[in-house]
Amino acid sequence: MAANLHEFPDAATLAAALADEVAARLAAAIRERGSASIAVSGGSTPKRFFETLSTCDIDWGKVTVTLVDERFVPADNPRSNHLLVATHLLKDRAAAAKFIPLYYDCSSIDEAAVIATEKAAGIGKPFDVVILGMGTDGHTASFFPHGNNLGQALNLSGPRGVLTMEAEGAGEERLTFSFASLSDARFLALHIEGQGKKDVLDKAKAGSDETEMPIRAVLNRAQSPLEIYWAP
Any keyword Cytoplasm (predicted)? Predict the structure, then answer.
């Protein structure tokens, strides 16, 4: 599957361009189907994009926002992706959007994954927009190198929904949408910044072992063209 690289001179220009594109995609989905869905990633990279997108003038009341992945921590935990999105995206005009979290206060992460799958069952078939990030180890979503459920997570023939992931580089236990849930998004983007991330991406492109660098699964097997947004 094709991957298209969009290069920008700086992070602010990238954030504005990506926000404009995503807002246009969401608005088109609302016009065509009456609602729109977007799954976003955590980390520090998307904050500026979130801030810009939150001010875009679309019918946010018809947009459902969820997370590509999440740590198994409460929403008030500083490492929570839910907290990140609530702080930087679900405000201004975007405060009207519906949010579906992945974390639920359960006795086990497996129970939380079942609930998250049930809560998200009505959206994302396919998602209108999916925004991925990438770590310096080549992980994306919570597809971590040598993760305990990595094979299941990357199986495009597997079920849509949320599953669990444990890995040495992941820190907390994770909840993540499966690759099958994300790979056919109508707009599938990878948002990365800095030369270091560009170097990681180039390394991923040069190899084939998905267990070593799971971003390779997205580069090689995504069902939608991957739009790569990068700034130094």
Answer: no
Residue 166 belongs to what domain range?
A: 3-231
Nearest Cα residue to 169 out of 85, 83, 71? 71
Cβ neighbour number for residue 77 with a 10 Å cutoff? 14
Any idea which residue has 């609302």 for tokens?
A: 30
For the chain, how far is it from start to end, CA to CA, in angstroms?
25
Q: How many CA atoms lie within 13 A of 204 on its CB side?
A: 26
Report pTM.
0.98
Which of 131, 212, 191, 127 lies closest to 161 in space, CA to CA? 127
Compute the distance between CA of residue 17 and CA of residue 49 in angstroms, rounded to an integer.
9
Residue 46: phi and psi, rounded to 5, are: -80, 0
Number of Cα atoms under 13 Å in the Cβ half of residue 21: 19
Residue 216's CATH number = 3.40.50.1360
Number of domains in the chain: 1
Render pLDDT for 6-49 as a digit per residue (tens, 0 to 9).
999 999 999 999 999 999 999 999 999 999 999 999 999 999 99
